[in-house]
Every structure is written in structure tokens, then in C-alpha cells.
Amino acid sequence: MVQFSSDNPLSTELQSAFSRLLKYHNHTEFVTGIMTQISEKGYITRQDLNAIQNHFPDVTLLKYKNELLDLVIDYIILALNDHLLTDEEIENVLYLKRLFEIREGDFYREKYMAIGLVLDKQFQLIYRNDYKVSLEEALRKVHLQDIFDLSYDQLLEFKEKEIRNALNNGADLRDLDTGKIP
User: Fold this and answer.
1) CA neighbor of 45 nearest in space, from 73, 7, 19, 74
2) Measured CA distances, 102 to 65, 80, 116, 156, 180 (Å)
3) Bridge-partner residues for 8, per DSSP?
4) Helix, strand, coil content of the chain in percent (nearest 5)
5) H/E element holding 109?
6) Averaged pLDDT for residues 139-164
7) CB neighbours of 168 closer than 8 A, spacing ≥ 6?
8) Which residues does residue 5 pair with via DSSP β-bridges, in sequence order?
9) 3 state SS of 6
10) Is 105 left (phi over 0), alpha (psi -120 to 50) or beta?
């Protein structure tokens, strides 16, 4: 796993991802400043973040929470392009959540529809393939649950449609890695 310490927070994966995100996503000047810093250095320190905030009067992370949540979701979508979450990508998400002071429940409460779209696509890939959930797919579900800070019931709420579809198409419940029948 990649560890971000104060003396070595560099992530070339994060740097590359934010370079791509800068090209295709429009954000406020404040968030663009954050993205630029990460795309140039591969990380941003709390001091760097404070310096960016000092350029904008009355800027707080709380004021920009919605946009910062979108930014983390954009990164997660980019990371999921290959339908996998590497240890480094998971660590990067945790790093961004800590940096932006994203708390448990923020994604579910503030970005329900956006995370629903991300999860729906992933659950289609997991449940529609062969109506069996492999170990790798089960781990991906756990990682998705963790990065979005979802409870078991919240995750079940998002995957319910795909489980029902799989069952309606002849899947065996024992092969679907779920403890509840939706």
C-alpha cells in the first residue's frame, strides 16, 4: 500500500489523474488551484492548501464541500475506468478525503445520485457477467463501500436492483455475495 507521510506524499498516479481531470473538468478557481498543485507535484500539503485558501477571501473547505465531493467522485470514476481499484488508488481517495475534511455520510447525504450512478455501473459489471460474484468482485464491493463510507444497508440499497435482475435471470442467491434478499 502507498503511505502518505508528511515527508513523502508523492503519488505519480494521483499526479497523472489530476492532470487528466484538469483537462476535462471545469471547477472554481479555488478547486482548480488545488487540482493544479496536485497535478504538478503529485500531492498537496495542508500548508499548500492554506496558501491557496489565502488567495480567496472567505474561502473555507466547508463552503466548497460540494465541489470537493464532486472532485473526489471524478477521481474515483477515473480510477474505476479499468473496473479495479488498486491499493494506491484507494489510498489516494483516503488521502483526498482527509485533506478535504470529508466526513462519513457526506457522500451519501450530499451526492446520493452521483454515487448511485458510479455504483450502478460497477454493480452491473459485477452481477451481469456470469451471475456469480468472484472474490475479486466481492473485494471491489468492499472497497466501494469503504471509499464512499457506506453502511451495509446503504450499499445493499444501491445494489438491490442488480441483485434482483440477477435472481430474475436465474442466478443462485448463494453465488451473489449478499446476506439479504432485496
Assistant:
1) 7
2) 8, 20, 18, 22, 29
3) 5
4) 65, 0, 30
5) helix 106-110
6) 91
7) none
8) 8
9) coil
10) left
5 contacts: CB under 8 Å, gap ≥ 6: none
Of residues 19 and 167, more confidence is placed in 19
pLDDT for residue 19: 94
| Residue 12 neighbours by CB under 8 Å, 6+ apart | 42
Q: What is the pLDDT of residues 112-130, one digit of tens each?
A: 999 999 999 998 888 877 7
pLDDT band at 165 (very low <50, low <70, confident <90, very high): confident
How many C-beta neighbours within 10 Å does residue 10 have?
12
Element (H, E) at 106: helix 106-110
Q: pTM for the whole thing?
A: 0.87
- The per-residue pLDDT for 128 is 78
